């Protein structure tokens, strides 16, 4: 740990104090003394309340454990279980109907359904890629992936594959922007006349979908169209390698793709001390000021990446039309659990990291709020903070009060900060309506996250018995009830037109054909945003929002009055058939162990919190702490109920370490776990498994942070 300086009773790591005072504060109207005193008051007044909420989690969990132990050998009595949860304050009574009154949300939150990216804020290149993923080439997305069923042939540009890409893009244009009596495949000329778009002298079936153009109206360089709130740009260039051979000169079809992006300070990063936090905060500052850049080598050349500018077109009436060139950025703070040694309080204890994140990320966002023109993140004067891993309405209310205090210290109008509630813990799921009520003037986002939600499901019901294999957990009724209930309650609470109702991640970035086939279910379910693993995936997922009018779906659901029942959500996905073969048990634990090791070795050794990790079959999967949580809790559950022994698990862990070492053999910086099995990373993975049952809520953070700090200290 670096040297410390004293600020308002806080012992602050010198590098963090320097960043705050020399980079974050200048350009805001907040003085250093006011900032530090405000943070000190927040940490010392809200810290004990934070600790009490965590203690309440543990108390409730202890009571649930005791109930399951007492009733383990009896047939499950659902009504008795439900009554018990009500008695202990886990399942709360639902209040009267209400609607959120969140104000000043930007169109990307309120009115434009579309893909959403989540990226580690500590990686500037990834952050820039995500921000710039507002626009993506459909040609490139089709050509460079398996989206059309096959990958392109290796080598240079393949004309046959390219022709299929162009034909497929024309099909999309015909579906989303049909022309009266003509296919885009046969079009020879696009031009603007009298404020209307003409294609071979024919009008679009819906002329209002024409938004603007760039260049000369008789031969535009670009045509801007809009469907279901999303823009599409047709790029014309007869000197381009594609446009030169196209009868209309169409060189590309660009889609508005990642409408919003979450800059993540939580699950996808490995931030354990001041050094890491400053890196995260500095990149967020660059995004909010608009000056973040990153230089790197690509194809033997030095490339500098910066934020895209907004786009300007001439509208049908001859006036200027400005379209945002980058995604609306949200920032995900950490949850209530973790503390961080970057700042010590008066008693020498670490600051709760969520309180530090709240003050610093909102301070930094003031750089964007101060802008009155040009490229801005929020045109409506809002800051969007996603708050993960909250358990029930009391914890949401605490977050709401935290931001009340932050706004007061930083001189911001109340409710400037908009809150994203991640519905990923069971106590939040079953009390979702009351969670939304607790922050009804801030809520701008709710979502479902299957992996964290399943990790919490296993930990909450750890004593109930052995859980099904992971693939079978997904098939149980509770998951459908969980996904539907999230949308139903969001709509009941008036989120439509004011906030995002989101769905979770597609974890296989190399399997785009499968994503196109299945992820359309998210907008069909009424979700107006869903997570994707890459800018390319965002462009392909955007196709689904052109096919599905999400607001029409939401209106139909709301009119129908569907409400998924809480009883379904409370069904514990235990294994009803436990006569697994030895091979089945071994295979399941191998899958879990390999995933844990593949993720943890990068987290602990390299400080990489999210990456594409090969699974046991060498299929690359996007892994973060949520995937690690479910895998470690699953093995812990089977160990606890003696489905498998500790010795057998350790043997599998060692065998899977050999697999992970082989998968990383091409990485010169990789430190092998074999043959000694005595490295810090391997020990961390074992801790997650063998100590998993006693981890708070089954979270991985305490183990990972402790082991990462151990490695940094040893270095």
TrEMBL record:
**Record-annotated residues binding glyoxylate?**
332, 424, 449-452
Annotated residues that bind acetyl-CoA are located at: 118, 125-126, 268, 305, 533
Where is the PTM Cysteine sulfenic acid (-SOH) found along the chain?
610
Q: In which pathway does it act?
A: Carbohydrate metabolism; glyoxylate cycle; (S)-malate from isocitrate: step 2/2
Q: Which Pfam families match?
A: MS_C (PF20659), MS_N (PF20656), MS_TIM-barrel (PF01274), MSG_insertion (PF20658)
Q: Which reaction does it catalyse?
A: glyoxylate + acetyl-CoA + H2O = (S)-malate + CoA + H(+)
Q: Where does Mg(2+) bind?
A: 424, 452
Q: Where in the cell is it found?
A: Cytoplasm
Listed GO biological process terms: glyoxylate catabolic process; glyoxylate cycle; tricarboxylic acid cycle
Record-annotated Malate synthase TIM barrel domain positions: 329-564
Q: Which GO terms describe its cellular component?
A: cytosol
| Superkingdom, natural source | Bacteria
Spell out the molecular function terms from Gene Ontology: magnesium ion binding; malate synthase activity
The Malate synthase C-terminal domain is annotated at 584-687
Alphabetical UniProt keywords: Acyltransferase, Cytoplasm, Glyoxylate bypass, Magnesium, Metal-binding, Oxidation, Transferase, Tricarboxylic acid cycle
Please give the subunit comment from the record. Monomer.
Which family does the record claim for this protein?
Answer: Belongs to the malate synthase family. GlcB subfamily.
What the protein does comes down to: Involved in the glycolate utilization. Catalyzes the condensation and subsequent hydrolysis of acetyl-coenzyme A (acetyl-CoA) and glyoxylate to form malate and CoA.
Q: What is this protein called?
A: Malate synthase G
């Amino acid at each position: 740990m670096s040297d410390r300086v004293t600020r308002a009773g806080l012992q602050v790591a010198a590098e963090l104090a320097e960043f705050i005072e020399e980079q974050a504060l200048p350009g805001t109207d907040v003085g250093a003394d006011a900032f530090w005193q405000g943070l000190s008051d927040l940490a010392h007044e809200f810290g004990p309340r934070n600790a009490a909420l965590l203690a309440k989690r543990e108390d409730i969990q202890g009571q649930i454990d005791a109930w399951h132990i007492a009733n383990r050998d009896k047939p499950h009595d659902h009504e008795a279980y439900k009554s018990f949860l009500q008695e202990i304050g886990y399942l709360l009574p639902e209040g009267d109907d209400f609607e959120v009154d969140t104000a000043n949300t930007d169109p990307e939150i309120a009115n434009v359904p579309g893909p959403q990216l989540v990226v580690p804020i500590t990686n500037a290149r990834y952050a820039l890629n995500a921000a710039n993923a507002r626009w993506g080439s459909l040609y490139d997305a089709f050509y460079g992936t398996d989206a059309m069923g096959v990958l392109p042939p290796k080598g240079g540009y393949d004309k046959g594959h390219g022709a299929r890409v162009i034909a497929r893009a024309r099909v999309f244009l015909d579906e989303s922007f049909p022309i009266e009596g003509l296919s885009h495949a046969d079009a020879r000329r696009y031009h603007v006349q009298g404020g209307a778009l003409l294609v071979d002298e024919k009008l679009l079936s819906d002329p209002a979908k024409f938004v603007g153009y760039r260049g000369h109206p008789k031969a535009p360089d670009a045509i801007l169209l809009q469907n279901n709130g999303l823009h599409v740009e047709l790029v014309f260039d007869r000197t381009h390698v594609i446009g030169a051979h196209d009868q209309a000169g169409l060189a590309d079809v660009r889609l508005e793709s990642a409408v919003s992006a979450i800059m993540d300070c939580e699950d996808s990063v490995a931030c354990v001390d001041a050094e890491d936090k400053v890196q995260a905060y500095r990149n967020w500052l660059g995004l909010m000021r608009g000056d973040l850049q990153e230089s790197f080598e690509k194809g033997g050349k030095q490339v500098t990446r910066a934020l895209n500018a907004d786009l300007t077109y001439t509208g049908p009436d001859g006036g200027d039309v400005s379209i945002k060139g980058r995604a609306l950025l949200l920032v995900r703070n950490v949850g209530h659990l973790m503390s961080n040694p970057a700042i010590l309080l008066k008693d020498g204890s670490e600051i709760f990291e969520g309180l530090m994140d709240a003050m610093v990320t909102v301070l930094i966002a003031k750089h964007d709020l101060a802008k009155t023109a040009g490229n801005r993140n929020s045109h409506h004067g809002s800051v969007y903070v996603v708050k993960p891993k909250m358990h029930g309405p009391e914890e949401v209310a605490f977050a709401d009060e935290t931001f009340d205090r932050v706004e007061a210290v930083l001189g911001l109008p109340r409710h400037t900060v908009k809150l994203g509630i991640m519905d990923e813990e069971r106590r939040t799921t079953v009390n979702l309506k009351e969670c939304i009520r607790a922050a009804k003037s801030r809520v701008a986002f709710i979502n479902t996250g299957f992996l964290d939600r399943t990790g919490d499901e296993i930990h909450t019901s750890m004593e109930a018995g052995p859980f099904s294999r992971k693939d079978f957990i997904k098939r149980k009724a509770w998951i459908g009830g969980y996904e539907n209930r999230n949308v139903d309650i969001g709509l009941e609470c008036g989120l439509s037109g004011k906030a995002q109702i989101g769905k979770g991640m597609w974890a296989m970035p190399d399997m785009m054909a499968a994503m196109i086939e299945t992820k359309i279910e998210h907008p069909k379910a009424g979700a107006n945003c869903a997570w994707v693993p890459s800018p390319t995936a965002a462009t392909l997922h955007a196709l689904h929002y052109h096919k599905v009018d999400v607001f029409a779906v939401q209106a139909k659901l709301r009119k129908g009055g569907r409400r998924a029942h809480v009883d379904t959500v409370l069904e514990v996905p235990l294994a009803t058939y436990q006569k697994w073969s030895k091979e089945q048990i071994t295979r399941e634990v191998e899958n879990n162990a390999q995933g844990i090791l593949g993720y943890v070795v990068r987290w602990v050794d390299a400080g990489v919190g999210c990456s594409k990790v090969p699974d046991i079959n060498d299929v690359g999967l996007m892994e973060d702490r949520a995937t690690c949580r479910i895998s470690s809790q699953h093995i812990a559950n089977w160990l606890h109920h003696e489905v498998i022994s500790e010795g057998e698990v350790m043997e599998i862990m060692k065998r899977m370490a050999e697999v992970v070492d082989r998968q990383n053999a091409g990485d010169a910086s990789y430190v092998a776990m074999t043959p000694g099995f005595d490295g810090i990373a391997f020990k961390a993975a074992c801790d997650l498994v063998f100590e998993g049952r006693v981890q708070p809520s089954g979270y991985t953070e305490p183990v990972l942070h402790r082991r990462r700090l151990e490695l940094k200290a040893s270095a």
